[in-house]
Amino acid sequence: MKILVTGGAGFIGGNFVYYLLNRYPGDKVVCVDKLTYAGNLETLESALQDPRFTFYKADITDRRDVEEIFSKEKPDAAVNFAAESHVDRSIGNPSVFLKTNIFGTQVLLDACRRHGTARFHQVSTDEVYGDLPLDRPDLFFTEETPLHTSSPYSASKASADLLVLAYFRTYGTPVTISRCSNNYGPYHFPEKLIPLMITSALEGRPLPVYGTGANVRDWLYVEDHCAAIDLILRGGRLGEVYNVGGHNERTNLQVVQAIVDLLGKGEIVFVKDRAGHDLRYAIDPSKIERELGWTPTVRFEDGLRRTVDWYLTHRAWWEHILSGSYRRYYHKMYGGKIS
Ligand code: NAD
Ligand code: DAU
């Protein structure tokens, strides 16, 4: 298969690129990424040496560029990771979230329609379901839970999901959607909770916990998410949504304290809460387990230890981000457009 991966210079997309290259020696991977502040070519350094991998610096909202790439590459499938993904940034500036996450998805769907691409997979999020109360541990998000979004980010992702399902119903575009809980692991941009806390502790900066730290997230090691997407891509039913999560619920304070314990340092400070802060996410993954045989393989304690080790042994990767030099890297290496 030739698989087009958008957003492959980001956290989960980058891990997915390596998942495919390592697991399927016969597959080719075409990556399309705008290299926003969250995109990092240093993440793809090894992939760029692989003849089975091609990189395009392009914006998924640019119809002409997307059309050119689809015409040239003729992918068998497209997996859309490209997005503005940080909730706090969406509260500060919603516009770019709507543009990339909704309009960009439509541009890709149109390209898939025009080129008869055999599969479009949308990487969505559990945040489209809104949140669950903290005092009802018996409740979980299923694929039937109504969409009920809280932030401009989640509203943009829910809008994209509706568009994807509309293309299936109206045009018969062969689509699937996955809605996953919070991921963690290597190459996670250090503005998100886990990498922010690890890198801050290592640099002697305080660890800012929003509110009281009682909000709950359902953590999944990124490789388990990649495996789920791969299974859906190869065996999922068209027009279906699959929830992905590993029943690994932790309060934010528990997560941050676990990082402090692993590193043996870090000063927790409680700061002003996020506006509209979702209380609890918790996924019921029984559909993907039943239909596709997916199960998470990494326990949270093991995954967190692995993640902390990765940040300890890959200091240059995140130090370049914090210093800003990762932005200069692709200009130096490639100048403008890359193909
Ligand atoms: P990320 O912010 O780390 O990476 C996003 C990537 O998309 C970056 O490489 C960026 O350069 C690229 N991008 C942004 N706008 C683009 C555009 N207009 N054109 C082309 N490329 C563009 O995000 P992530 O955490 O890896 O998330 C990837 C996807 O998974 C997103 O769609 C997100 O909604 C979804 N998701 C994330 C999580 C999580 O915990 N991180 C969980 C569930 C779902
Ligand atoms: O659930 C899936 C979602 O998980 C994805 O769709 C998003 O793209 C991804 O960013 C993530 O969203 P969250 O808002 O849950 O992740 P974040 O890392 O920003 O925050 C996790 C929790 O930690 C949340 O309750 C807010 C809290 N937090 C976050 C930061 C950055 C803090 O307490 N302090 C912080 O400094």
Could you describe the 3D structure shown?
By secondary structure, this protein is of the alpha/beta class. The chain is 43% helix and 17% strand. The chain is built from twelve helices and 13 strands. It has helices at 11-23, 63-73, 87-92, 95-115, 152-171, 193-202, 222-235, 252-263, 286-292, 300-313, 315-323, 325-334; strands at 2-6, 28-33, 53-57, 77-80, 119-125, 175-180, 183-184, 207-210, 216-218, 220-221, 240-244, 249-251, 268-271. The strands form four sheets. A seven-stranded parallel β-sheet has the order 3-2-1-4-5-6-11, with helices on both faces. The protein has a two-stranded parallel sheet with strand order 7-10. The longest helix is centred in the N-terminal third of the chain and has 21 residues, at 95-115. The mean pLDDT is 96.
Give the cofactors and ligands.
Answer: nicotinamide-adenine-dinucleotide, 2'deoxy-thymidine-5'-diphospho-alpha-D-glucose
The radius of gyration computed from the alpha-carbon positions, rounded to a whole number of angstroms, is 19 Å
Structural class, judged by helices and strands?
Answer: alpha/beta
Helix amount:
40-55%
> Mind describing the biggest β-sheet?
7 strands, parallel
Which H/E pattern describes the elements? EHEEHEHHEHEEHEEEHEEHEHHHH
What's the overall average pLDDT, rounded? 96
Q: Count the helices. How many?
A: 12
Judging from the principal axes of the Cα atoms, what is the shape?
Answer: globular
As laid out across the biggest beta sheet, the strand order is 3-2-1-4-5-6-11
Give the DSSP E fraction (strand runs of 2 or more residues). Answer: 15-25%
Q: Could you list the spans in which at least 5 consecutive residues all have pLDDT below 50?
A: none
Seen as an oligomer or otherwise, the chain set is single chain
Q: What is the end-to-end distance?
A: 19 Å
Overall number of strands: 13
